[in-house]
Amino acid sequence: QVQLVESGGGLVQPGGSLRLSCAASGSIISIYTMGWYRQAPGKQRELVATITYGGSTNYADSVKGRFTISRDNAKNTVYLQMNSLKPEDTAVYYCKTDATAWTTRRRNDYWGQGTQVTVSS
Fold first, then answer.
1. What does pLDDT average to in each consecutive run of 10 residues of the chain (121 residues)?
2. What is the rounded CA–CA span in Å between residue 26 and residue 23?
3. Could you tell me which of 23, 37, 25 has the C-alpha nearest to residue 1?
4. Cα separation of 61 and 10, whole Å?
5. DSSP 75-120
6. What is the three-class DSSP state of 40?
7. How far is CA 48 from the centre of its chain?
8. Main-chain phi, psi angles of 100, to 5 degrees
């Protein structure tokens, strides 16, 4: 199957920046859309940003102008550059990929285990 590992989370002050990375590995045939989601305590998981294989992006209104998603197809890696961070950005951030694996030969969604981002003074 496909495994996703997130990194780059941590504690930052309001107005600060953080860069998240997510690397995919395993019996991968193809990776299509990749994205970032987040979940704060007591709230539902929400979409933050997505990016297609060709580079088309989509952002939640709450992060437009502050966050930038990108990917390196050769490394099977997706990034999330977060600038002008606010306390309300505090959440566990999850990486997701739409991929086909040799073990299943079917297109499925795969999730990482999450990385904590805390924005506080």
1. 95 98 95 97 96 96 98 96 98 97 94 97 92
2. 10
3. 25
4. 23
5. GTEEEEEE-S--GGG-EEEEEEEEEEETTT-SEEEEE---EEEEE-
6. coil
7. 8
8. -115, 130
Nearest-angstrom CA–CA distance, 2 and 102 = 9
> 105, exposed or middle or buried, with CB in 10 Å at 0-12, 13-18, 19+?
exposed
DSSP conformation letters of 61-80: TTTTTTEEEEEEGGGTEEEE
- How does pLDDT run across 8-31, given as a tens digit for each residue? 999 999 999 999 999 999 999 999
Q: Tell me the per-residue pLDDT of 80-89, one tens digit each, with 9 for 90 and over.
A: 999 999 999 9
Unique residue bearing structure tokens 């979409």: 47
Structure tokens at 77: 């890696």
Backbone angles phi, psi at 114, to 5 degrees: 100, 155
Please name the residues in contact with 64: beta carbons below 8 A apart, sequence gap of 6 or more: none
